[in-house]
Amino acid sequence: MSISGGYLDKLNPQQRRAVEHGVNDGRAPPSPRPLLVIAGAGSGKTNTLAHRVAHLIVNGADPRRILLLTFSRRAAAEMARRVERIASQVLGQSAGVMTDALTWAGTFHGIGARLLRDYAPEIGLDPAFTIHDREDSADLMNLVRHERGFSSTESRFPAKGTCLAIYSRCVNAETALEEVLRASYPWCAGWTTELRQLFASYVEAKQRQNVLDYDDLLLYWSQMAAEPSIAAELGGRFDHVLVDEYQDTNRLQSSILLALKPDGQGLTVVGDDAQSIYSFRAATVRNILDFPAQFSPPAEIVTLDRNYRSSQPILAAANAVIELASERFTKNLWTDRTSAERPQLVAVRDEGDQARYVVEQVLANRENGMSLKQQAVLFRTSHHSGPLEVELTRRNVPFVKFGGLKFLDAAHVKDVLAMLRFVQNPRDRVAGFRLMQLLPGVGPTSAQRVLDRMHDAADPIGALLEVPSPPRAGDEWHRFVDTIAQLRAGTPGWPAELEQARTWYEPHLERMHDDAATRKADLIQLEQIAGGYTSRERFLTELTLDPPDATSDQAGVPLRDEDYLILSTIHSAKGQEWKSVFVLNVVDGCIPSDLGTGTTAEIEEERRVLYVAMTRAKDSLHLVVPQRFFTHQQPATGDRHVYAARTRFIPSALLKQFEKRSWPLVAPEQPTGPSFTRDVRIDIGAKMRGMWR
Ligand code: ATP
Ligand code: MG
């Protein structure tokens, strides 16, 4: 009999089997057989994983030897909180101490960065490495493109973003360049040789500058884990490795897990193939489907079939949508959460009306006692929330936006962070170049010259101090160099150095921006955020990997007990749930998005995106269908407002699952586009558009 709390009694038999798997006689031995929990949305996978971690700890597993991999840092923190709550039922007060020791909970990238710093000396990496976000990576790719002479405008060489995307896909999918080009970038195939040279130079540049990009965190980790002299030690560090949202991992991530636990012992993964929505980042649903057979004996499989999240009508509609998918492993779910309220399919005239409709409903819900935090608005792409953000601001409704344009992407914040990065790693050329370009009188050529000299020197900061000031830079050059030298020497120390960096930056801020005062407030907010981190290195790493969310409030992130509405891309809403969910732009062209190439695989993934969106809702779900919407594609007419049709994923046969209505009830102008409320049998409009797909 294992030690258990009342917590086991709340689980259903399958969940309980997953939680207790490999725990014998009240002991959690370090090497139970591999376990796969595969089940649909809201069936309690994440909850089961939290219970399993708590159960392992309660039964004697060492929390410092548990590696818990989640999809975001927010999800890791939430998981740790849940584990503590569950474990405290048995351990009481001491549960907090135990779960505080659960230090290896985070994302693949975050954990990778930490392990790489630990092992840096053994793998020839300088532990002071800095991490490039996507924008920095694209800048570096661009720099290398120029250096190699590939970027002349008439040559039509792929743009920096495309180059980076191709490179990233090769790395994450562990696939050869030719294959990636053939499958996803056929129009670039003529450049195979040049791209290969470019990527070689890009890799060299990163190594010279001691920077890692996002992909490197996984790539270096997997290489390190496969190294025989390190593999055993690394794998031996963790008794249990548990992964949530396994359907969205890529080949590289699965090879990391396999290198850590070659026989799968102690490995638990959970996921849902019907929610696989990250193939654009080379995630592959094969990982989850092929998981059991990788091991001998094969992994234990637990499936869950009861949904605890959504009311019956919402679940039925979501099931109906995913049932039309061409391929799927997990079965449909059932629930006993009856409700009379069907999900709503709401026709509105345009995105302006859509915004007004949503705000009105959200406020009505609040009137009826549902806080803003229990509601969320989801959309396919970050910019779709523009009109809604305006309307919310106008009506004074606070909101937080997940997965959107980040506070950290603002130029002034990036400038100050570049200062910290350059101090941390003076070989980081993208950071150095950015800073020197702020100085009046320092052009790109002189900046490159200085960076070259730093690069060739054994002591780059020493070299920087000795470089004569570029002729027209004068005092500003000295102020810059002195600040770097001071921060590098450790005065005034962390986190006060951020204030020092701001003091250095302020004259530039005032010279460059009319709204310097607001921007300065952002920088002060950055200092407050920095106060929560123990070191510059930790701050830079975590901020780059998982930046804070954007908010409606100029003063920054709302306090925990404040009430605010969540705005999120569907991708960032993964794993979460709200009482009431609104999905914007449920039209063809948005879901499925018209930005892809329109292959069957891509369209199928978009169907899963809609499934993920719908299954976030507990009690109330509104899918909004504007009859006219703004497109980023340039249509032949030149008018970027196009008439839209309801998403093809809700064909007429499924309309009975929904309550259909238009808003405003009596439209002042009749929409001229195809009306979705009519039960069209053949959607000619969609066919016509399809001819051009
Ligand atoms: P997703 O696929 O969206 O990630 P999931 O399968 O991870 O969903 P959870 O988020 O773990 O599902 O659980 C969904 C909801 O169901 C949560 O509110 C959770 O507390 C609740 N739940 C899970 N299991 C049970 C149970 N045995 N009894 C009551 N509620 C449960
Ligand atoms: Mg989950």
UniProtKB/TrEMBL annotation:
- Domain UvrD-like helicase C-terminal stretches: 312-575
Q: Where does ATP bind?
A: A39, G40, A41, G42, S43, G44, K45, T46
**Which residue ranges does UniProt annotate as crossing the membrane?**
none
Question: Which InterPro entries does its entry note?
Answer: DExx_box_DNA_helicase_dom_sf (IPR013986), DNA_helicase_UvrD-like_C (IPR014017), DNA_helicase_UvrD/REP (IPR000212), P-loop_NTPase (IPR027417), UvrD-like_ATP-bd (IPR014016)
| Keyword terms, alphabetized | ATP-binding, Helicase, Hydrolase, Isomerase, Nucleotide-binding
Enzyme Commission number, as recorded: 5.6.2.4
Q: Name one Pfam family in it.
A: UvrD-helicase
Q: Which residues form the UvrD-like helicase ATP-binding domain?
A: 18-311
MF terms (GO), sorted A to Z: 3'-5' DNA helicase activity; ATP binding; ATP hydrolysis activity; DNA binding
Q: Give, as one word, the top-level EC class.
A: isomerase
Q: Which family does it belong to?
A: Belongs to the helicase family. UvrD subfamily.
Name the UniProt record assigns to this protein: DNA 3'-5' helicase
